[in-house]
Amino acid sequence: MSLGYAEKLSFIEDVGKVGMAEFFDPPHILQEKVERLASLIHKSKHLVVFTGAGISTSCGIPDFRGPKGIWTLQREGKALPEASLPFHRAVPSLTHMALVELERAGILKFLISQNVDGLHLRSGIPREKLAELHGNSFMETCPSCGVEYLRDFEVETIGLKETSRRCSVKNCGAKLKDTVLDWEDALPEKEMNLAEKHCKMADIVLCLGTSLQITPACNLPLRSLRGGGKIVIVNLQKTPKDKKASLVIHGLVDKVITGAINLLNLQISPFVRIDLFQIILTQALSIDQKYVNWNLRVASAHGPKAPLPFIKSVEVSFLDAEDYKAALLEKEPFQLKRRTVETKSFELVLKLNFSEGCGCPSIEINIPVDFKVPTDCFDLEKDSIFQKLRETAIKDSCCGQNAVIERKAILSPASEVTVYATVTNIVRYNKASKVSEANSPSNGSIKRRIENGIGTSRKRPRGHKRKSKFLTN
Question: 272-428: which CATH architecture?
Answer without folding.
Answer: Sandwich (2.60)
